[in-house]
Amino acid sequence: MRTIVISLMLILFYIEGHTQLCTEIKDRNFLSFPTISKPMTTGWVINNDFSDDFNTFNTSKWHVIGGLNNMDIRCHDMSPDAYFSNEEGNVTVSNGKLKLQVFERESVECTYSGPNGTVTKDYHYSSGWVESNNTFHYGYVEIRCKLPSEIALNPCFWMTGYIGNPMTAYDEIDVFEKSIADPSNTMLMQNFYIDTDLPTWSTHCQKLEFNQSYVGIEYVYSVEWLPEEIHFYINGNHTSSIKYTTNPNYYNSPYPDVSYYTCADIRYAVPQHFLITLSLNLTANPNPFLTQYFEIEYIKSYKLMAGNLNEEYWPMNFSMSDQNIFKVHKSIKLGGSGRTAVIPSGANLTLWGKDSVVFKQGFTLNTGTEFVARTIKTHTDLFQ
After folding, report:
1. How far apart are the C-alpha atoms of 206 and 264, rounded to whole Å?
2. Where in the chain is the domain with CATH 2.60.120.200?
């Protein structure tokens, strides 16, 4: 009898990459943009608290910087040439979509704290910023949206959470962000970032460059946020990951990691607000075409289901209708004497274990199946 124990994570799909030290930019040149969508893997269940199809603007879930009916503004160095507000429709909901747009305005002076100190400048444009009322902590989040083709417009779907009271740092997870520093309709960033202008700041900036434009068409961008690991996706296709490690030689010979990973020496586990923003950068185009929107069709969030975190789950057979198989248990075992575990063809499966996933004699993985077996750190906020 042969027993296979999968620890950490086995991903049975093709990935390529190159060695990269922690805290440095990971630059992936000329990837094929994944236009073909893959379904989300098993185990995730909808979390309605942070999901919205935007038939209306749900004020129990979201608020607009400046409010829906006033002229308060916010300036931020992520938008060099537009302040954030909701003057005359910077944020609107129509035809089942949330829309953010930039408008030209009369001059407004704005002062804010930037990375190099206090900044005071005149703005001639305003834009939209939408933020969740509550904080999200671990799970799978996806946004289906259409990005504007105007090169001066920089849409972003990100999360941020504060550390300490008073604040000593903040965490940021960027599901996607068009780069202001390197404007392009083929360049995206998917990041983990921690900073507050403190002496001990660290950034993990994963910059992906594609061989085709991704603007003007609705695509799905998502992040799978687990304790001590973050995985980024476009249309369900894995693009890059960040995981926690204290090993300073993580990428050194003779066993460097060569998958789509950067590593972090910070345990990022701070609850995050969702933010949807549209910035303006006139350096990219001093005469921007501003009738275009950042359009969001939906945001969906998911949590895992907790099984028995203290005992092993060992079913008599594998069945797609057995939801216990896709819950997180202390361990899960498939196959063995008198038991069968035939994984169907063409499935997209993830099995979850807190301590281990074990395959015994009788386990069969059919061709055409995308299969992942994971042992993961668990946290109460991970589960529905």
Report:
1. 12
2. 24-303
Other Cβ atoms less than 10 A from the Cβ of 298: the count is: 17
pLDDT computed for residue 203 by the predictor: 61
Going by DSSP bridges, is the β-strand pair 329-334/312-313 parallel, antiparallel, or unpaired? parallel
Q: Taking the CB of residue 4, how many other CB atoms lie within 10 A of it?
A: 14
Query: Using one digit for the tens of pLDDT, what is the confidence trace for 204-234?
Result: 677 888 999 999 999 999 999 999 889 999 9
Q: Is the pLDDT assigned to residue 252 strictly greater than 50? A: yes
In sign, the C-alpha dihedral spanning 212, 215, 218, 222 is positive
The pLDDT tens digits of the residues spanning 266-312 come to 676 689 999 999 999 999 999 999 999 999 999 999 999 999 999 99
**Can you say whether the dihedral through the CA atoms of 11, 16, 21, 27 is positive or negative?**
negative
**pTM, full prediction:** 0.88
Q: How far is CA 370 from CA 16, 254, 374, in A?
A: 16, 29, 13
Q: Measured between alpha carbons, how far is 331 from 309 in angstroms, rounded to an integer? A: 8
**Contact by Cβ (8 Å): 195, 350:** no
The rounded distance, in Å, linking the Cα atoms of 373 and 158 is 28
Tell me the per-residue pLDDT of 29-82, one tens digit each, with 9 for 90 and over: 668 899 999 988 899 999 999 999 999 999 999 999 875 555 578 888 889 999
| Helices (H), ranges, 204-291 | none
Could you write out the DSSP letters of every residue in 96-152?
Answer: TEEEE--EEEEEEEEEEEETTEEEEEEEEEEE-EEEESS-B-SEEEEEEEE----TT
> Strand pairing partners for 313?
332
Instruction: Measure Cα distances from 47 to 54, 227, 230, 308 in Å.
Output: 16, 18, 18, 20
CATH topology of domain 24-303: Jelly Rolls (2.60.120)
- Name every residue whose Cβ is closer than 8 Å to that of residue 210 and which is 6 or more positions away in sequence: 30, 31, 32, 33, 186, 187, 188
